[in-house]
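the two lines:
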Amino acid sequence: MSKFKKKKSGELPAVNTASLPDIVFMLLFFFMVATVMRQNTLMVQNKLPFADQVEKLDKKDMIMYIYAGKPSPRYQPTFGSEARIQLNDKFADVSEVQSFIYAEREAKREELIPYLTTALKVDVETNMGLVSDIKQELRKAEALKINYTTLTGDVEQN
Amino acid sequence: MARRASPEVNAGSMADIAFLLLIFFLVTTTIETDRGISRKLPPIEDETDPPNIKQKNIFIVLVNRNNDLLVEDEPMEIENLREAAIAFLDNGGGVGEEACDYCQGARDPASSDNPTKAIISLTNNRGTEYGTYISVQNELVAAYNELRNREAQRLYGMEFTQMEDNYRDSNWRGDKEELKEQIAVIKDLFPEKLSEAEPQS
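prediction for all of em together
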């Protein structure tokens, strides 16, 4: 009967960790897929102001981004320290805002066009002159829905 | 020379490598949505005669190039702006046809007649800082939201901002049509009449 001898009891068998890499890979893929890399490389300083009466901007595909602010330190030798507009990946002039809006609209499905929102990501220290110019151009392009992107916080931090 | 079978690669450290990558992505991921103050710009219209509005129904906010506030010809700090705007909107000084039965303000005859007539006019200088402009906008929107919350609480037992969030939320279970009507009612009580003039240089 030695064939059916019981194993030595008392020692716990080690937990099988062979599937641990699989589990970790699963998590890894989830985070890789969920990660959104920045769409545009920022070329301007972009310290957003604080506000607390904010609304969420979901539906990322229906937002056009306009950045404005002083050029980042590495661009200052070429572009100076005057606040500028950034559209897509390059500096732009106020007069280019309209054509940018038209180009963005062109890329979207037709039925979505009325829902497009322009998100203004403007640095705190920018003068309102530039922002008003952008707004005027947006009115001309009939892109009337805008959103001043802010951080959530108390206005006293501005 | 006898061929030796190639030894198996040790996969024991695979988990460590995967963990390393996992931690990298965990740290870099920002699952966040942008937030901000939504506004609607007025469309460009042909020059028409400005409508006749009584001076007392306009609440004038000026911001100069040094980021100072001038509200109704009085200098003011940003912290006090919300209160002043609420006092103006909620005043309800009108009589007869223009009376406002839901206002809880001081009913000062020198201030606004009715929230539906009250207009806030904001003028900033080209040299004003964007941060200050956003602060002012935020306070004025807050004034409207506070009054709308009060009315929504009174009529429907729910905050107005909550109603709007629910309306936008696609997972919310409830009658969206009804909610839309309720939002419209509240918006009619306190319509957001915020006019922005072209900045002065």
